[in-house]
Fold each of these.
Amino acid sequence: MSYLQIRDLHKSYGSVQILKGISLEVARHEVVCLIGASGSGKSTLLRCINALETIESGEILVDGDQVTGLGVNLNVLRRNVGIVFQSYNLFPHMTVLKNITLAPTMIGGISKDAAEQRAIELLDKIGLRQKAGSYPDALSGGQQQRVAIVRAMAMDPQVLLLDEITAALDPELVGDVLEMIRELAVGGLTMLLATHEMGFAREVASQVCFLHQGKILERGTAEELFENPQEERTQQFLKRVVTAGRL
Amino acid sequence: MINVTPTQDTYDARLQPPQAQPPAVVPLTAASVIVVILTAVTSFYALAWLYAYMYPQPAGAFTKAVFVVLWLATWLPLLPTVQALRSARKSRNALQDNGIVIARHHAALGRESALTSLGYSVAIVVLALLVAFVSTNDGAIARTFLRPEFIAQAWSDVLRAFWVNVQVAIGAEVLVLVLGLVIAIMRMLPGRAGRPLRFLAVLYTDVFRAIPGIIVLYLVGFGLSLAEVPFFKDLPPIVLAIFALTLTYSAYVAEVYRAGLDSIHRSQWAAARSLGLSYPQALRTVIIPQAVRRVIPPLLNDFIGLQKDTALIGVMGVIDAFTQSRLVGSAVFNLSPVTVVAIVFVLITIPQSRFVDRMIEKDQARQRSGSN
Ligand SMILES: Nc1ncnc2c1ncn2[C@@H]1O[C@H](COP(=O)(O)OP(=O)(O)OP(=O)(O)O)[C@@H](O)[C@H]1O
Ligand SMILES: [Mg+2]
């Protein structure tokens, strides 16, 4: 059974319908990439899954349990489903270490020492151990995003949602962040990521979904979708991406 | 290879090259010389009046010398004008040697010198006018507000009474910090359940920002004991004064907090909630600490306002510094004791402003440097 199931999801902001019936399944250890033009609803979808937005209709199931509707323990849901945004992820008034250990100590029931030790280990893996005492402002954008991923990972989430986390970065910083995600993918972490990095999507994704105006217009393996897109819209989108030099 | 097809050529419409001539120095210098002379004349009268007021009998030679030196000092802005004229000459010479760049350079320096002279002259004139105002009419102003013997006489009494102002200010500030935050948070409680509390918070800020502080002081000071309200009627007036000022200033400070809380980017909420923090946890660890940092300067402004308003607590029968100074002042029929209060307020306010400036700088430096 899929770990994450989305059935006929609808979402509007005011009278504007943003998501018009999204259905999607993500199995354990699977990496699913969402692609699509700006404004197609990728971020909105991810925010709905993390219950940062309320939805009109449809269901979202995490590990077989419906997490939409009233009375759901969102704090538990969010411990299982981590999310990293495009920017403004870190808390600027806390050191890197405090950023990472805040949630584990506060709600994960882990002692401060254990949480810090774990945080240092995680930072060590991405070569940012010496930045543990720094404030986010003193880190490059790429370093900040990697710390944000570490912070999400410190809660041991079952699935990680990544929302265009390289979109705000200078090109030379993108590589480090993608490398980190690649390693997580190799390690078997379930991920759902919205991205404009088509080359990367092609490499790591087991499933690629093309979103167009609030619907998943086409989906398939990376090979199917990139080599042999069926829908005209998909073809046009990929053509634009190629012209922009991003594939 | 990209093909270039110019659609429009703007070269003909370009700006003409900047004026080649160096800017004029001499007219500006002449103006500054005139101002220096006017300054010296003004200063002469100001010093003469001051001398006449301070020394009804002819003073000693030393004192006279001091006054003469002071007056000569008002001519000092002449030095930059000399420098300006020198630069003007250099500029002219350079121009004759065809060194237009050097000529412009010297001309610019010359104008800067002339402007420097003007700046100092204006400052001296302002000071001279002040001295003249204070010592005019044989020192009527000074005798009313600045009599040294009355100041010395009132000093200790007023200072002792000022301790009351300090206590009231500190007490009210502590309470305001708490109550203001509570109201600000009440005002942003979410959902249907929060609506009645939100409404109460809005009502509170609207009402207490509308009522003049002095009226709240009066009503609380006399009303509570007049109505024999249990507990409150037995409180000393100084505590009631603290309550009254807290009521008024919590409304302002709640608004300051609210602006700070609103200014935290929405994604900080999202980031905190997405980590699994509950609403109160996110508020407490992520939003409030960032908001408080941002509101310190406006918060201190309100605190300075509060400190000054402690001078109003006399209306409820508390003897504070202002009341005390008026008592002393009416006894000697002079306002110098009140000047003492004014000076004391200035003296306690300035360090606070500097302190906050330094705090902000430190905070920014720490976040920039990135190590603690
Ligand atoms: N809070 C909001 N209120 C109103 N409309 C919103 C809000 N957030 C997003 N939208 C609208 O929803 C649509 C989908 O936005 P979304 O951010 O999901 O797009 P996206 O696919 O992530 O685009 P991008 O690639 O630029 O990030 C957009 O048209 C946007 O204007
Ligand atoms: Mg987006």
Note: The CA atoms of residues 54 and 69 of chain A lie 9 Å apart.
Amino acid sequence: MSFLNIFKSDSTRRTVLSEGHVVPEPSRCVQCGICSYNCPIGIDVRAYVWRNEAVKHSECLTCGECVARCPRGVLRFAQTDLFERRDS
Amino acid sequence: MRYVIIGAGVAGFAAVESIRSVDKTGEIIMVSDDPHGFYSRPGLAYYLTGEIDDKALYSRTKDDYKELNFSFLKERITRIVPEQHKLEIEGKPAIVYDKLLIAVGARAIPLNVPGAKLEGVFKLDHLTDANNILKWAKRGRTAVVVGGGITALELTEALLAHGMNVHYLLRGDRYWSSVLDKRESLVVEGHLQEEGVTLHHHSDLAEIVGKSGRVAGIRTADGHTIKCDMVAYAVGIVPRLDLVQGIGLNVERGILADEHLQTNDPDIFAAGDVAQVYDPLTGHSVLDSLWNPAREQGHVAGLNMAGRKSTYLKSAPFNVTRLAGLTTTIIGAVGRGRDEDVVGIARGDSETWRELPEAIVAQSGLDVNHIRLLIGDKHLIGAVLMGDQKLSFPLQKMIANSADISPIRDSLMQPDAPIADLIADFWMGWRKNIAV
Ligand SMILES: Cc1cc2nc3c(=O)[nH]c(=O)nc-3n(C[C@H](O)[C@H](O)[C@H](O)COP(=O)(O)OP(=O)(O)OC[C@H]3O[C@@H](n4cnc5c(N)ncnc54)[C@H](O)[C@@H]3O)c2cc1C
């Protein structure tokens, strides 16, 4: 399998992205706040990261602004039920 | 029970949270001499470039603080008297503690050249420094940056963002030689040059020249001069040890703490940049200057202070940073030796990165998508990734969990091995072993 395809075959990515949530990898995070600062609807994304929780905010548009802006690759999209079962 | 925490950094704050999670009623007092309280120190780099404003540096709201129910004192502790369980503050009544956490962090090592005290010479420790830099950069045109590690680059990028001409002085022949290999240093330097930075290798700052008390230029040891209005430096940091001299605590390069973050005084704990923490896996006590280890240490210290025995197990030190625009992850042991631009340890650095056991290096990738692996007998010991970060999470887990890479070890070591593919394929099978 080619390197570039590694995450395409990933079971956590089988569902379309819009059904997923933004999930954090807290050990990469230094709470700089760029995610919260750039969230168009003002969700405090960084607070979720501190608590190691998926951004399950009812108003989250999954627009990806926080994912793209984070300078440290803390955030990604994932189908959170799979994520929570920790069996991915 | 009264818990006192000296320091409002991430170690101190994590301790408040963990103490409160165990002890709902004990009194918690946090004391800090930083008038700005708890904020993201690494975030200062993005505040300086203008990517965020200063309000964004604060991750906690008033309500969060209220919920934790602790008091905050903006004061400097001047003396610790362990026999009396007492902390002195100049001109104020002393504070008595039952359990004490020392989480006073580290500070920049000052420049040791004539002219270092002129107006226009800056370091970057805290928000007050960052505000001073911004004020000065508005008026200035040309800046000289000296030092190494991540902070020197962050200073460079901040000054570029404010339209300054930046000269970067390096003592040796390349950037961050203790952690990066030659090729990685060249990638970073290439990016800096593209952004307009003038690099001066083999340049040792000898003097900062002033005019009417302000920076007017610099002179290097070999007689080269540069006119400038500002000098910014990051030549390393040292743990803030002034408070613990001569009070009976065991101190080496930092305050020695065991795996419970306890010092040799059972009522005093130490965590974060100031602590030199015992690692039961290697038998060494090491300094880190990293946000997440500081948070984790503060958390474990707090639990122990509140009576819930817990152990800090150092994971492979790990940092993600942006080096000249490239996301870079450094995991485990990757370098060796000293960096000429830094005295001791740099910010965002770990002594573990230089404790390199016998290892073989495998490299692959183009300039902007680069992977370097340090391969031990059966395990990966360290890795550097620049650019594409897809493999960063797998590598971090494989190194932290000492994955047995015997099945792919020989293939990894072939010349021109497709390292990324090999690691990706291995990871797909191996990751079932761990919870991710
Ligand atoms: C510009 C910059 C960039 C960084 N980048 C990164 C990065 O990319 N990645 C990373 O992992 N880490 C980075 N770091 C390092 C990281 O921020 C530190 O490791 C972390 O903040 C350490 O936390 P701490 O709680 O131990 O100490 P600190 O955050 O330094 O806090 C110490 C506290 O103690 C207080 N204090 C000290 N002495 C006294 C006294 N006598 N009385 C009262 N209060 C006192 C201070 O006011 C302060 O509140 C960076 C740091 C800086 C400054």
Note: The radius of gyration of chain B is 23 Å.
